[in-house]
Specification:
Elements: H1 2-5, H2 9-26, E1 39-42, H3 45-48, E2 61-68, H4 78-95, E3 102-103, E4 108-111, E5 118-127, H5 129-138, H6 142-146, H7 148-151, E6 155-157, E7 174-175, H8 177-186, H9 189-202, H10 220-235, H11 246-256, H12 263-273, E8 279-281, E9 284-286, E10 288-289, E11 292-296, H13 300-303, H14 305-327, H15 336-342, H16 344-359, H17 364-368, H18 374-390
Parallel strand pairs: 2-5
Antiparallel strand pairs: 1-2, 3-4, 4-5, 5-6, 6-7, 8-9, 10-11
Helix pairs in contact: 10-11, 10-12, 10-15, 11-12, 12-14, 12-18, 14-18, 15-16
């Protein structure tokens, strides 16, 4: 089912070729920003390998991109940077007979024809690692500040709602998608390396494992996040504005993952422990950005309690639904609640494809699709009961 949820390779390659084409356009000799060596790179689920197919045929893949210019804040205000990038994006749209890009709070949205089934959100940015690391150091996160992989690629971004948006200032919003991706990969380093080795062996690839792109393989952590995001989408299909956001699910899942080898074992660890990484800071819930501990991914919870309540409602339901599946005696029996919360079409299509395997009496596919042993099932049941009694607890951050 996780494989069914994944973006098709052809669609992934199409998206990749489209954003590379934008990058080439921005860097062409005639470009008004070519002197700043513009570079386009993905962020979000496309970078993390946790993209899921749109929930309905009317929805699109949201391809999040960063457009980084090698320039300084002395050369641009947030407004002038956004306009400079927007001008070239508009010319690209015009040259390719596309509709004009939409201006959003921080980015430009480039819409493709309906058949493409995706749009690109292009975020203008400038290098800002030094200021980012200085702030971490001042806040007491010295180890993080000195880790170039986690903090050395931070960028300053635009936000048109800020009062100094059109004025020269050093005080820009910051983002660090490359650092977050490095942290995320670190949470699954063993399984990622193993998956690449298996791919190299299977396809007789002679290149180094390090040369195999991350998007070519998937780990149990990535598959689990895809399943949890789809479960979330089904639960809140009629309340998208208040559903748990993907960055919170992704961050908490990565914290709770312990390099499990199967999807079922990964889900057990994640669903058992993910809420323990929600901090309580003076009565305020914090889902800490692991590469910027001063940032709270759950900052909207204090403003809209429904968002917080829906997260815990979703987590409780996910625990119940997946525990029911783990209690099943055979992998081809899907509890109705889980079927409903993963999408009946997805489940029925996948189960139908697995039936020929089941009828010949092969047990191996149970492992391949993430079914645990009886010991794991019992452990999962005990874990769910323990969680319901104990509740969330953890303060993982420490200053050095």
């Amino acid at each position: 089912m996780a494989e069914e949820l994944d973006i098709p390779p052809s669609k992934l390659e199409e998206a990749k070729s489209r954003y590379e084409a934008i990058g080439n356009w921005l860097d062409r000799p005639e470009s008004t920003i070519a002197e700043y060596d513009p570079a386009i790179s993905p962020q979000g689920s496309f970078l993390l390998g946790t993209v899921t197919r749109p929930f309905t045929d009317s929805e699109e893949y949201d391809v999040d991109l960063v457009c980084r210019l090698e320039a300084s804040k002395a050369q641009f205000t947030q407004k002038s940077l956004k306009e400079a990038v927007g001008h070239e994006v508009a010319l690209y749209a015009q040259a390719h007979s596309m509709t004009d890009p939409e201006e959003h709070r921080r980015c430009w949205r480039l819409n493709y024809a309906a058949g493409a089934q995706f749009h690109m959100d292009i975020l203008p940015a400038l290098p800002d690692a030094q200021r980012y690391q200085t702030k971490l150091f001042e806040q007491g996160y010295r180890e993080l500040a000195h880790d170039s992989a986690l903090s050395g690629h931070a960028v300053a971004i635009t936000d048109k709602t800020l009062p100094h948006y059109d004025r020269p200032t050093e005080d820009w919003p910051q983002s660090n998608p490359t650092g977050f991706a490095a942290w995320f990969r670190g949470r699954m380093r063993v399984r990622l390396t193993e998956a690449k080795r298996a791919l190299a062996h299977r396809e007789r690839i002679t290149a180094s494992v390090d040369d195999i792109p991350d998007y070519k393989v998937k780990t149990p952590l990535q598959r689990s996040i895809q399943l949890l995001k789809r479960h979330r989408d089904c639960m809140f299909a009629n309340d998208c504005d208040h559903k748990p956001i993907s960055i919170i699910i992704t961050t908490l899942a990565a914290h709770a993952y312990n390099e499990e080898t199967t999807i079922s074992a990964a889900l057990q660890s994640i669903l058992t422990g993910m809420d323990r990484y929600i901090e309580d800071r003076s009565g305020v819930a914090w889902v800490v950005n692991p590469v910027n501990p001063a940032e709270n991914f759950a900052d909207k919870w204090a403003e809209e309690l429904k968002k917080r309540d829906n997260f815990y409602h979703w987590l409780d339901q996910a625990r119940r639904d997946f525990a029911l599946y783990l209690r099943a005696s055979t992998f081809d029996k899907m509890p109705e609640l889980l079927r409903e919360h993963l999408g009946a079409k997805l489940v029925d299509r996948t189960m139908a494809a697995m039936l020929p395997v089941a009828t010949v009496g092969l047990a191996a596919p149970a492992i391949a699709t993430g079914i645990s042993s009886a010991t794991d099932v019992a452990r999962a049941e005990r874990a769910v009961e323990q969680i319901n009694r104990a509740g969330p607890q953890s303060k993982p951050w420490a200053k050095s």
